[in-house]
Amino acid sequence: MKVRRSADKRNFVWMAVFIIIFIACFVSPLFCPYSPKAVDLHNVLQKPGSVHLFGTDSIGRDIFSRTLYGGMVSLSVAAITTIAGLSIGLVFGGISGYVGGKIDSIMMRFVDVVYSIPSTIIVLAFQMVFPNKVLGLVIIMSLTSWMTMARVIRARFLELKEANFIILAKGLNIPRRKIIFGHMMRNSVSSIIIIATFTFASAIITETSLSYLGVGIPVDIPSWGNMINNAQNYILTGKWWIPLFPGILIIVSSLCVNFAGEYLKNKYVT
Amino acid sequence: MIKYSIKRILQSVFVLFIMSIFAYALINVAPGDPAAAIYGGQMDKLTQAERERINTNLGLDKPLVTRYLNWLSEMSNGRMGNSYANGKSVNRIIAERLPNTLLLFTVSFLLTVLLSMVVGLWAGLHPNTATDRGITITSIIVNGIPSVLVAIALIYFFSVKLSWLPSSGASSVFTEGAGDRIRHLVLPVITIILSHVGAFSRFIQEGMKDEMGSYFVTVAKANHVSQADINRGVMKNALVPFINYAGTHVPSFFSGFVVIETVFSYPGLGNMIVGAIPVKDYPVLMGGILITGIVVVISMLTVDIVELVLNPKLRKAAAK
After folding, report:
1. What does the alpha-carbon distance between residue B310 and residue B213 come to, in Å, rounded to a whole number?
2. Which of A110, A202, A207, B97 is the most buried (most CB within 10 A)?
């Protein structure tokens, strides 16, 4: 399907917005007037204003600084999770698709089994083992986000295995390493990138939900999820500005990544 | 057909087995000991002997495999132990909460399926119109917003601003009855529907588009088959894979309940599991995970059976 020019333009806007958020978060230590962790008990629960752009929370921390710093934490966690999860999926799906036969069907049954376990519940159980550790969170989020990748790569490999140029390459005694990495992987790059964007978007959402529940990133580290922790209580007591700004950033970045993924999917798959 | 069913049931049992082993092993390598959970702040006052006595009473001095087998046999006899946190029997805690989660699941799952069928089929029958594109974009947006934030926004508008609906719980203290229960269900159900309806309806929409472009449709059109008849056939073909798709998303509904029940303080299984974590209440957590597993497996089997009844192709394959 040919993508219309307007879709190209719209996608450019989404990408640009996301890149601005990304850069703003990662260089925030350079220009933020307040430390994200500095407590100021003289200025608690300030509404958004000229001194504190986004206001302050219940112990006087500046929400603007915290939102940007939190973005750095949340986006890093999401990015590392995506890379780790995709690597697992790539290896698992690659082996399953390349080897095929009985091993393939056993490995795919395993994916089915992992799929039918509600992932949040597994993450919660895991968080008891590694409580309050960012590394633990990243590990368990990666372990619950590789299955889609594995399925897609397997399907792709099964399909490529029957392709004439691979059969030819095998016939010419080209080393298996070269066939796998040079030909099969390379021909799967577009699928890999598409899955990566969706995995990244869902990793942002998972971090948010877990930190909201108090079992994600440790509470002393600001992150988007931690900042909306117990947000319904702030809302019910009229302190709407505390969860509002991180909430907006979560939604905007998740949408940007999702739309970018949709765009890539339309452009390269169909 | 029987062979197919047996295969599916065996697979479900395997899922449950893996889940129980996984959860039990995980919880047992966790640091911290249950004596701490029972005594909390007064932990330091306990002598070594007292701590050992507590651990022996809870059976924690035996090896891991023995403990797992003991626990499994207890579970299969329907005895899930007592909560470490308050001593109440886990059976009773779960019996109080399971109906709430089941109600939430049944209502939200059926409504999600119905709504996405209406939206998806409609969009599929009117391809490339403004509304079709609008539905696509809306479903991407709805899909991209975390349900926590949807829930909080709903609380803000419907509970705080308009005070139409309650923001938490499953029933009020003073006004009882069905109407009250329904009022408490509205916001959680809307949140769950919104978090899934986007992906669901897009699945149908894209299935419809694929079918519309297929060869048999072109042939039917060339032979003057009426558009209504073609639509009927296409809709049927697009809906059959959707049943399977909906079935594979049952686990993600239960994942969502953990978060949504917590936001709305809805007394279900998810909320119970979240509550058990900070106090390291192993029996409640294990019971919760296992019961959730059983519910998920049964729901998925039910969807499978529905699929088998509706899809003649699958029935033929299963009969072989």
Report:
1. 23
2. A207
